[in-house]
Amino acid sequence: MNVYRMFVYLFFAAILSACGGTSETSPADDNPAGSDSSISDNTPEPEPEPVIKSTADLKTTAEFELKSTETLELDLSIAGLPEQRAYLYVCHLETNETLDRGRCLVKTPILDGAYSGTFNVGNDVEGLGLEVWSYVPNAEPVQHFWSRSEDTMNWTVSL
Amino acid sequence: MKHTQLAAAILAAGLASQVGAAPFAECPTQAFLVQGSASTTFGVNLATGSYEDLPEDKIPKTIIEGDGKANAVGYNFHDDHIYGWSYAHNSIFKMGDDFIAQPIPRSSLVNNNLLQTGFYIGDVSVNENAYYIYRGGNAHGLFRIGLDPEADDYLVVSRIISGSTLNYAIFDFAFHPDNGSLYSVDRNGRLIRIDGSDGSSQVLGNVGQSGTFGAVYFDVHGNLYISRNSDGYIFRIAVDDPNPVAEFFAFGPASGNNDGARCAKADILPSSQDELPDFGDAPDSYGTSIENNGARHEKNEGMKLGELGSNDGVQLITGAATGEGSLVQVDAQGGGALNGWVDWDHNGTFDNDEQVITDEPMDDGINRLVIDVPEDATPGDTWGRFRYSSQEGIGPNGGVSDGEVEDYAITVTESGVGVITYPGEGSFVSLAYEDNWPHQGDYDMNDVVVSFQTRKYVDASSNAVRYVMSGKLLAVGASYHSGFAVQLDGVATNNIDEDRVYLKVNGEVTTAEPLEQNAPTDDAVLIISNDLWEEVTADPGCSYFRTEDGCDSEQEFRFELSVSLVNGVPVADAPADVLNPFIFATPGAFHGPGLSVEGQVHPGRTLEIHLKNKPVSAQFNTSFFGLADDNSDPDNNLTFLTDNNMPWALELPIVWAHPKETEDVMEAYTGFRPFVESLGINNKTWYLFQNSVNNRVIQND
Questions:
Q1: What share of chain A is helix, strand, coil (3-state, %, to 5)?
Q2: Which of residues 623-682 of B touch A (CB under 8 A)?
Q3: What's domain A69-158's architecture?
């Protein structure tokens, strides 16, 4: 073996070692389960924990997309509004029971107090609020709040 | 110098030394208005027209002993005192910060026989320490009186020109801060320039306003301010303009028997942030800065919209849909009146016919009113301005002495259209990419980091009709050149209304044509940037853009992309939430080895990197799937994942603090690993800044 070939051999040996790869002649193949040569009190070694050195070593499923959001389904039905037309806000909260109308997910006119929709909300969002305004200046808005800790991801409002 | 002059000067020097009032603070911003037959002094903020009695807490406030009349005042930049003419003493006076006039006896003035009486026009030169007074008519003229105690001409009166030669119906004049000339506007609106050295004069034009302008002032930029006695209106004139015009500037105090003085070397606004007036926030085309005579109000806790200084007092509750009424809620305090404008035609100004609220009195607390959105209002993003003040009749620009101005970005929609914003107005997700695909990167997730928001417009028939994507480049932590684009999955290229697509970069509409020219039925792709390294550069001493310590660059790449559809797409089928944003290899740029395509050295547009399991565009070279570390299975909608099913891109639901250069996301955020390994069950909020190892991340605004 010349020096170059020896270097190549050692290089690939090192790679295989680093990758934790196995050859076709691993000890497990030499001693298949159930063979006569097995020794009854020789319990198999637990599989070593995979070494996680970086994100590249992490494993997950093909379907899990690492999203940090969840889908919230809203089903709204409000009876008895002063007019057929109304205006819906779905917004983040300024305080527990105050909408931040500068941070809304939905601003839309609605008819007959009805609306359905789905929204992806960040895992850190603890609550949302909605308001339904009629177009009558002196009418007060209808409000409702969703809380992640108290409600499911189905936000049903029937008033 | 004659012996009599010398004696008088020595006497006057002695007198001056007895005039002991302290000087004013060096060259104050405030203007001084002296008025009344028993003269008192007011401090006037020319920017807003607000004024106050001076001194505030000293009685008597009259500046002349025995309640006499003063006039012809001027601010002396050289000694920071005010000089003027005392009718009672028939001589000049000097006044310091106690606002008590100290007369200089007429007998001290050398050549005092040249002076008659009753001067009401005066100012102190900026270029020389000398006081100038003027009165028209044969018995009078323009006079100079030296004020420098060290000079030979101290208190020496000299007549520059006869009042019959220089004879204008003016009521005050002011020295320009630089050119040594005096300026005034006569009762007919003629702008007059007078050379102080010889009294020669010229009429520069008519400024379009007439009346008695009893107080005139300059600022350091050479703008002349004239105050009309009858109504207190303050006008601004750019005297160097070939066609000078008096632009309404502020509502000031109406007055009579008055004169004004101001340090011409002072800016019009105070340097202290606390003392600045309240300004609007709209782009400057609407008149927002002081240079463009922006709307401004003297801050006053008693007269405000919502919280003083916050943009929270006015809300268009029911949006702004063409041809419909819009319910407006106003939170007001102080019993003032509201005025409002909306730029319905998006021409960048508030036109007269765009006033939507006129002097509407407000009760304290919540008020509601309805404004009409015109049928022909242009749908899209525009601006509204609301001004609240005790002053009625105000326009969209200029200063007033109380209240507040609030500017709002307003989205005009077609009738019945609603807006769904992801992740919410004023909120953004972050998109973080590794750009080494199909090779695994170092997972610092900062090769490209973008904040991103989408707005989807839905019509009354529940069809998506328009999308707006906006955001900002947060980091580029790689040397590869990448572009950034968005695909609207399921929306054909020929369903995009190409004429209505626009891309704004840093607030300006670009000439770019973002819609990629693909086959008509291909999913539409909108290019935001072909090369992010063309949008920003690494700061000196930095290898990349905002991924290293000390590299928090001031550069910005903000974008807003608007896309309207020819035919609405039912909401159930329409792209939603984050849509399908991706980075791609910049055409002609190296983007890793082994990626040449059909004779092209570099992959260019055919190499894309998407969020995990998102579909690729028609331009993508599918032969790249499966190369190197990629384990995509596009037939089963599995894309951009490794053998371990790890992605090349992440979407975070906040403006994320991204890892610094070479910091593995798993090390920067210790909750990331359990989040991944639990399939998202544990450590759900791993991405929050408080869950980071904070010396390993770069924060973003």
A1: 15, 40, 45
A2: 633, 638, 641-642, 644-647, 650-654, 664-666, 672-673, 675-677, 679-680
A3: Sandwich (2.60)
